[in-house]
Specification:
Blueprint: E1 8-12, H1 15-26, E2 29-34, E3 41-46, E4 49-55, E5 73-77, H2 81-90, E6 95-103, E7 106-113, E8 117-124
Parallel strand pairs: 1-4, 5-8
Antiparallel strand pairs: 2-3, 3-4, 6-7, 7-8
């Protein structure tokens, strides 16, 4: 049995703001807007990664102001982390840390994303 990554599904406080963020920061492209079983779902492509974004629905657990214990980070592999960080800063990205070399051949940077998510950029030499 083999498995291959298909998508990451994120619940959003503000769906349109999240779509705009992933478009502007990472060149995300909306490839579908769907309504399966009454759920609003937006499918976005960012390189070879697919995100599924949907708004919080009535009755869904609401995000807290404290730490989140589920998915909290999206990681994107990049070729030139210094250049990518400069471009994202120019677009208004809010960096948490980095770029910094974490071990031989691996440099990372972290930035804030909507809905208490964090983005990790990874360059592997």
């Amino acid at each position: 049995m083999t498995f291959k990554h298909d998508h990451i599904h994120l619940r959003c406080r503000d769906l349109e703001a999240s779509i705009k963020y992933y478009q502007e920061m990472f060149g995300g492209e909306v490839v579908a807007r769907l309504q399966p079983r009454g759920l609003t779902l937006v499918r976005m492509a960012i390189g070879d990664t697919f995100l599924a974004l949907s708004p919080l629905r009535e009755g869904d657990p609401q995000p807290s102001d404290g730490p989140n214990w589920g998915a909290y980070e999206l990681g994107f592999l990049v070729q030139d982390i210094q250049r990518v960080c400069q471009e994202l800063k120019a677009k208004g990205a809010e960096f948490i840390e980095g770029p910094l070399k974490v071990r031989s051949g691996v440099t990372v940077a972290f930035l804030k994303a909507p809905d208490d998510m964090q983005i990790e950029l990874v360059q592997r030499d």
